[in-house]
Structures are given as structure tokens and as C-alpha cells.
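Try it yourself: sequence plus ribulose-1,5-diphosphate, in.
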Amino acid sequence: MDRTVQETADRIRDMTIRGAGRIARAGASAIGDFAKGYQGNDLGRFLDELDQASRVLLDSRPTAVSLWNGVHATLKGVHDAGSVDEAREVLISNSDDFVKRSLEAVEIISRIGAKRVQDGDTILTHCNSSVATGVIKEAHRQGKDIRVFATESRPWRQGILTVNDLASAGVDTTLIIDSAVRSVMKKVDKVFVGADTVTSHGALVNKIGTSQLALAAHEARVQFYVCSETYKFSPMTLFGDMVTIEERDISEVVSPGEIPESVKVFNPVFDSTPARYIDSIITELGMIAPGSVYDVMVRQFGPDVLKE
Ligand code: RUB
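Structure, out:
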């Protein structure tokens, strides 16, 4: 197996590279680098190895469809190539294009989302979403007076990344433990979270605990916004496929010998928030209602997506 591809897959699996946008860009870049470094001239062999490389990347983490979309956007048109050189050119150009469009989408969403933030707002965010923090930092950069609560996000504590990022941008930030969400919700005006996958029904799959935030926000009549590039929309859900929720090792939750062996540990990494708890999804195309995801998806992926 190509070393760069294997290394990227390993770094996604061990979460050195994490967050749905970053893993998508890493997957697309790894395919581009594989193409750049390929030595042979046999097209059939090249395509076989490319197929293997794609599978290794896609098997690294199961939940974020951004990875699938990033890899498939990079592979687009490669099977029409007549030579290794042509295939290489297609892959490199697709990979660069995906990374560029992905980064642009984050910037656009930051600007659109920041418009929803008002002077004096208190915002709650969960885990570490570069898109949600992008919105918050942009609102702060525009001079809006805001306060942020950020959840710790056990067991990986990605909330530490979030508070470091927001604090170094000068945002007034408070770290809370995950179980404090309902308690602080009465002080919150808006919730901004990221997305790993959005289904055709407008449900959000994101870091475990997101659905609890949504329920608490619903109860307190607090607006709940999802910040998501459209490559986090899952075409597979158009056919009724369920999103696989990753479960990670129990060592992330307990240390060896800490609890009796008879005790089981369940460590799901993501959960699903039904569309009815989501006020709006902020995408690079604009703000869309969860009920419109299906239409946007068909437009984005083309009508043929329904026949595949
Ligand atoms: C990260 C997580 C983030 C989304 C969106 O989970 O759930 O909210 O991936 O991130 P993990 P971004 O740490 O397990 O990857 O907005 O940066 O794409």
C-alpha cells in the first residue's frame, strides 16, 4: 500500500487528523499525492491500486460522509482517462479543487453564520467544529460583543481545542462539562454546532451529546444552528441507508483495572439529532431549512444520483 495513503488513514483513525472537514481534505489530498508519486505506466494496474487506496482511506473512520464525498470528488472522471498521465492529471486537479472549495466553503459559512449573531449574544458550541468556531470568530472579528460556552466533550476533550482557539482570537469563553449543558441553556441565545453527516431528511449526525444540546435548546426555545458544508450531505441516505455510528475503544473512557471486568463500556462517538430540533443549516449556498436538504442534495450531486 502507498505509504502516504496508509499514513493518512492511520492518522485519521487515531484522530491525529480529526473533524469532518479536515478528514475530507486529508483524504482528497492523499489521493492527489498518491497520483503525484505513482511511477508505473500500466493504467489498469494504476486504477486497481487507486481503488485499494480509496478503500483504505474510506475504512479509516465510518461516520463522516465528508470523507466519502472528498475521496469520490477526487476520483471523478478518472475512469475516462486513457493513460496513467491523464488519470494523474485528473486526480491532482480534482484533489486541489476539492481542498480549495472546501476551505472556501468554511469561509463563506463563517460570514453567513456571523450575520445570525447579534451584539450581546451568548452562544453554546459543542466539541470542536472548525466551521462553528469560524462563525463565532467572524462575529467577534466584526466587533460583536459575544460570550461563548464550550462543552468539554468527553472522552477526547476536543472542547479544550475549542476554548484555546476562541480564547486566542480574544473571544470571552467559558468551558463547561458536558452534563452542564441544560443548566447553562437558560443563559444561551443561540447554539452553533458542526456536522459530520447530514441526512436527506435533514437529521444531523455529529459528536455524541449534540442531540442532548438540541433537546435542551428546544426546551428553552433557543435557536439551534448547524454549520455544514454541503459535502457533509450524505447521498447514501437518499436510498434509506443508515449512517454508521462509530464506536471507539473502551480505553478512551476507562483506564485498565479501574472498573470490574464484568462491567461493559459503551463508547459511541456520534449521535443523531432529528430535523425537528434544528432551526437552520448554514451552508456555503446559504441558510437552508432541514426539510430542504433532499432538494439541495439532488441539485448538488445531479439528478442521476437518484438512479445510482
Ligand atoms: C468532531 C465533530 C465535529 C464535526 C465537524 O468529531 O464532531 O463537530 O466533525 O467538524 P471528532 P468541522 O473529533 O471525533 O472528529 O466543522 O471541523 O468539519
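One thing you can check immediately is this: The chain is about 45% helix and 15% strand.
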